[in-house]
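Record pair follows.
FIRST:
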Amino acid sequence: MTQDLTTAADTRPDGPAPWRPTRTVAVVLAGGTGSRVGLGIPKQLLKIAGKPIIEHTITVFEAAPEIDEIIVLMAPGHVEAAQQIVDRAGFRKVSRVLAGGDTRNATTRLALDALGPDDCNVLFHDAVRPLLSGRIVRECVNALWSYAAVDVAIPSADTIIRVDADDCITDIPVRAQLRRGQTPQAFRSPTIREAYRLAAADPDFHATDDCGVVLRYLPEVPIKVIEGADENIKVTHPVDVHLADKLFQLAAAQAPRLTDERAYTEELTGRTIVVFGGSYGIGARLAELAQGYGAQVFSVGRSTTGTYVERPEDVEKALREAFDATGRIDHVVVTAGILETGALAEMPESTIEQMLQVNFVAPVTIARLALPYLRQTKGQLLLYTSSSYTRGRARYALYSATKAALVNLTQALSDEWSEFGVRVNCVNPERTATPMRTRAFGDEPEHTLLAAETVAQASLDVLLSNLTGQVVDVRRAGA
């Protein structure tokens, strides 16, 4: 660390002054043009999992309690597009969206100018690493209390070779000593400023990252390495877009719990919730829970109200009756489903048709008919998937396939409906003790199953959150 300790020798403290930053700033570096992706627009503006890549990235820092401010450095000519994303998402920590430079190092210099003169922590992160975790952000910031420079890296799973101009091997370094660098890279601002000041005087200056600048020009400064994550990939090539999209699909969000019972009552009193499939199981428990907190719940189902979700006229009637009674619909929940097991080739046509209609066509119909009501309240549609959505399983292929379709529907509609302020999420519960599961698999050990009440509580938390386009896992404690 370099600090200005210009006090007289007899008054200088025994050690360096303790580090006291005024704030912690995340700088999102989005200056790339995406030429290697080959899609004609900057790669950070490509959509994955229903949102632009840069929006996913900013969201991580927005949610991180360690971050006080976010500055975005965008590719020249696309600043307005980035600003629109920031405004639409309502990011409160983003203070500025600025044009980046011609190179990574030039963009860093612009960011340092934007920070101002105060001593602060600064994290530089590639905008096209949208799968950054809160854990990495937290550990980087914590490390800055002890180190002036911090990098993020993961061990190399591959053997690394060094070659000459003819592509012949000249060396095979010891893999245990090698790491693959990621971002963010974090610094105490005086350190990175000094490194770039020295670099500016070097006519041969060139570095591919900011830690490299510190390593070259301030070799006495230790650079602490924080463990990264395999999923913290950089979207650089076309295949990376598909990989990131799949990783987002498999990643599970968590809905925050409210502080106490009174908070739930304050949030839910006066809201209207329509639950399709509320006759029993998760839907019934959710309806009971929400009613207990003061919500007006209209729970409909085949066995209780004679509502068949596969019939558009039944769906429209249920929605209209709820709206006529309360003047609003805030949330629409679809827990209705059919689980029939057996080999697909041996399954009766009538069973196939019913499963497709109830498990997929019905949620599509409900979504279409519910949108006009949800637009008025900027409400939420909540769907349900199954752990089988990630990989189809023998003897319930149709169930797995329809549950995978609901995940895709969730992510697509969250994008389509974002302009209306309507949120769409999907709950993915572990095996749950419901009558539907008992009919399909018989009695199972109670300790291996989630209680329907647990899933209902998690569902309520999702409804009260700002999440959208997310698959929210619900697991047994300790599982």
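SECOND:
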Amino acid sequence: MATRKVLAGARVVLPTGIADGGRVVVEGTRIAEAAPADPARARTAVEDTAAADTQVVDVSGHWLVPGFVDLHNHGGGGASFTLGTVDEVLTGIRTHRLHGTTTLVTSTVTDDMDALALRAGMLSELAEQGDIAGIHFEGPFISPCRKGAHSEGLLRDPDPADVRKLVDAARGHAKMVTLATELPGGIDSVRLLAEHGVIAAVGHTDATYEQTVEAIDAGATVATHLFNAMPPIGHRAPGPIAALLEDERITVELINDGTHLHPAALELAFRHAGPHRVAFITDAMDAAGFGDGRYMLGPLEVEVSDGVARLVEGGSIAGSTLTLDRAFQRAVTVDGLPVEDVVAALSVNPARLLGMSDRIGSLEPGKDADLVLLDADFALKGVMRQGEWVVDPQLG
């Protein structure tokens, strides 16, 4: 098998901008070259084609973008990251890779503390193997007023000792904890997480504007699925949304599936926060990449119909069935966002948040060869992870 791969002729999204007819060279697991077209390379292209150890792929008419990075994902392929066996979790991870997510953080949902600690231990082994980038705890430290698809009976205040228990159980692989920071212990827990290098995310919260500002000043840096599971903006009580949008220290998660957000809300977030502060996430549950039916989200039963997941009891939206390739395509073709801004939201910004920008998030020499091939209509046509094709190029 060729150890050197040359992808030539695509519109390549580079940190410096879009390169028409660009070229990406992969050697082993890393990017060796990522550059615009250069007529002086014509002879090199001929030599590449003749080399026995080189695979040359003409991807003219397509886009090459960095592999997607999902900060917030509960499952897929029929598998739950909170309840599934190791094999089932790996099935969910593979499902999302087939849709371009080359780096994934597994998210849990509210459960008993001991069960969450056990789950963190299992997921940390997958992180040590390189299958996932880490663990996100969404719950149980959230507001019963904004619980969404979380079991109210298992919710608790964010006592720093309990937060520390989960962080320790993750053995260095806890990446993010979502908190209702207005609850008792919330601000101290934000400080604890910041001290341990774990992202404190404001979400499932009933906080006021002033309480949210206090949480940001204490070290919170992410808004968990902005707009969802928090009070709406009011003209006298602007609430958490205004505080999270206005502060340059905050990256806002957005679920761009056409169900969680009205297009005007998405545009508001992009205009106010700017593309450098947005991270598209899936918030996916088991049905992503699998299909309609009945599922369990933690201890709660979910009905998925026409791709929309809702709790059987109460009807609250229960995560999504989104994959990030669909989020990309929708952002460009429906929302009209520039391709470079969408790449920032799907790759650059989440990689930076995870502290992994030296390895992933952009097409640059020395970084992991994680990339996605899209056609002119932004439909997925190929996925490479660490130099190996997960989805072989479909160029017909």
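COMMENT: The mean pLDDT is 94.
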